[in-house]
Amino acid sequence: MPADLRATTQYRKVLEYLRALHGPGFGRPMNIREAQVSYDGASAVVTADVMADLEGAPRTAVYTAVDGRFRPVSTGGGSARSGRFSPDGRTLAFLSDRGEDGVYQLYLLVDGTLGEAERAPAVPGTVEYLHWSPDGRRILLGVAGLGADLSGGQGSGTNRGSGGGAPAWFPKVDGDVADEAWRSLWSYTVATGALERVSPQGLNCWEAGWCGPDRIAAITSDSPGEDDWYGAVLSLIGLDGAVRTVLDSEVQLGLPTGSPDGRWLSVAEAVCSDRWLVAGDLLLVDADSGAVRRIDTAGTDVTRLEWIDAGRLGYVGVRHLDSVAGVVRTGDGRVTEALSTAKSCGGTTFHPDGSFTADGRVLTIQESYELPQQLVLTAADGDQVLASVADPGTDYLRSVAGSAQALSWSAPDGTEIEGIVCKPAGDGPFPLVVNIHGGPVWGFRDTWSMSYPWVPLLVSRGYAVLNPNPRGSSGRGQSFAGAVVGDMGGADTHDYLSGIDALVERGIADPARIGLIGRSYGGFMSSWLVTQDTRFAAAVPLAPVTDWYSQSFTSNIAAWGNRFLDADPEQPGTRAHTRSPVLHAGKTRTPCLNVAGALDACTPPGQAQEFHQALRARGVPSGLVIYPQEGHGVRAYPAQIDFLTRVLDWFERYMPAV
Fold this sequence. Notes:
Elements: H1 9-22, E1 29-37, E2 44-50, E3 59-66, E4 69-72, E5 80-85, E6 91-100, E7 103-110, E8 118-119, E9 126-132, E10 138-144, E11 183-189, E12 195-197, E13 204-210, E14 215-221, E15 233-238, E16 243-247, E17 252-258, E18 264-270, E19 281-286, E20 292-295, E21 301-309, E22 312-319, E23 322-329, E24 335-341, E25 344-345, E26 355-356, E27 362-368, E28 371-379, E29 382-388, H2 392-400, E30 403-410, E31 416-423, E32 430-436, H3 454-460, E33 464-469, H4 478-482, H5 491-505, E34 509-519, H6 521-532, E35 538-542, H7 548-552, H8 558-565, H9 575-578, E36 592-597, H10 606-617, E37 622-627, H11 639-654
Parallel strand pairs: 32-33, 32-34, 34-35, 35-36, 36-37
Antiparallel strand pairs: 1-2, 2-3, 3-4, 5-6, 6-7, 7-8, 9-10, 10-11, 11-12, 13-14, 14-15, 15-16, 17-18, 18-19, 19-20, 21-22, 22-23, 23-24, 25-27, 26-27, 27-28, 28-29, 30-31, 31-33
Helix pairs in contact: 1-2, 1-11
């Protein structure tokens, strides 16, 4: 494979495909998320990507739905996101970096007007999220210092651009924890314009929401490193800075918020592999006594919480492959489901998301592999589609991307495993690529493009793609999610292999043409599976872990890996060694294209390099591709064009569809 693919026929074909898909949408909203509805249901906003060309990363903008179409809410430059309505619906607050690229501050649009927004006083850092107080007097700002860690789902690394204006020769220094690494909470008073820090020094606030008008529920730790999040606790913080720990857990906590009267705290408790990818049990906590009530959501892993009023808590979540929304009455804990659908709800997010009106309607972004994203307000009498991103580009993708079908199979121990297979028109068997999701605690749903750009591209070239949810995936309860903890590369290995066997038996997959691709945990499994089974014709591990020993001493989430392996890297013979693909490279016969981002702090690029060199030393065909400006995955253009070209070239070379 040449180093520069831009002059190749394959690159031109991928570029034509991407232009046919995205070109009609240039300048229009796409990849929508963060749906928010006003309390009375009269107004709704979303955050959307906006592309002008296949160059760099798209900017983001806040749009509202008017007369069946999306309309931008503000004319200012830069990117904008996270629109939130005040309780009375008159003011829209949002975040924008129009003052400095990548540094988000608070802006407000008053009295429902569209156009230029008022900028609030700047905070020292970048605002990650905002929440109105229940009385509408204040806005809570979650602020990250310009040097704070990013999670793997955010792209890894830190939120400060590389270089920081320093000369090219300047060293990278990692010493004491800098002030810029911390996350803090600030309160903005709307009437006076006063901006005050709420959280004390030495407390890192990962995520927060109001609990009544004068206290804050927050997930906190005493240190700001990404690994510290995994042991963070639920705290109550007063506007005077007083802090009280309310709840800790053997697993992880997220989605903190409180009732408008301050009586209850709500939080999700979940086995998590990534910050902000929380899908778990719903807990109601008495704010004063700390007594905990675990709410029965009928098997739904909760992924979003929003208080409707003091007696009702709305939730959104995932159950098997379905998206679910419901309302909990705090008096008796009774749950009423408002929505349950096989469509994916939430938009371009990792988990289902939504927003509630005062009368219990639910605003979601609905989509499927064959349905472009649309903004939908669901009520007891049916759905109201407010706007859609459909355009000639989405029509093109539907014409070439085949179809998707949910399916299940039995693992060797009898556990039912679910997944979604995407396949071209016509009869099989097809060459099959197994697309392995990250996490491992995440899960595929029926989403547009299956949330990975290579899935419809591969289908358009004649491949079937299996998207499995092995043990450890979301949507099956915490026992199922926790089954992978201490056993990555164990029973989950056979969840994948049995899925391949099932598709071969059903005439969908050609056993002589089976490939693998995956990112993060999916990169680890793509590397691991080729050491455990010789059936694979090609593999593309992206952002992998291949050596758990070196991962433990180079990653910013080393404790996550050791916890999920139940391993001590300093002890010979633990899973840090026995489950490291690089130490089994001699068993591999599969050609592997190893891909990494140079800025990835979660799974550093040395992980891909180790496996590449181990394979090369044993005479196995291997490629190594490291993108200098990418982190945990390949996100920006034209790097993504190059990556997709290499993926296609690799599979078509070793397991051609025709």
